[in-house]
Stress-induced phosphoprotein 1 (Hucho hucho), 148 residues
Amino acid sequence: MKAKGNDQFQKKKYEAAVKYYSKAIKYHPENHIIYGNRALCYIRSEKYLKAVGDGKRATLIQPEWAKGHYRYCEAMFLLGDHKRAMAANKWAQTLCKADPEGMKDLLQQHAKFNIEMEESKCRREEESKVGRPNTTATKKVSSKRYVQ
């Protein structure tokens, strides 16, 4: 089931991938990778609350797995809970120190969050000066992560 989910993910058929990952979870409920993969599908489908749940579940099953933390933090950030996403990212960095590649990703994510928050702050300040919303499109944080 996981392999079929991965295949659907590669084809950008996220809803189909979610169905396969959900079936795989029924047979392997302690597999953190499946939860992480499904979280990424939810992120790509803009179902951020569901992504938060799966990302969190992956981190509870495997606390040192950086990808699970990355996806959890990203979904939380995209939901608009920036402070909690930043705090969760910092906590993930303490848990994942033994994973150099994962640490690199978490540090890059933290920097990306800082940039997004600063840009958002500047937009709000500009809007308050002008007295109306800035209609410039806001940039989304996007996941360039892959499934396993």
Notes: The chain has seven helices and no strands. The chain has a mean pLDDT of 92.
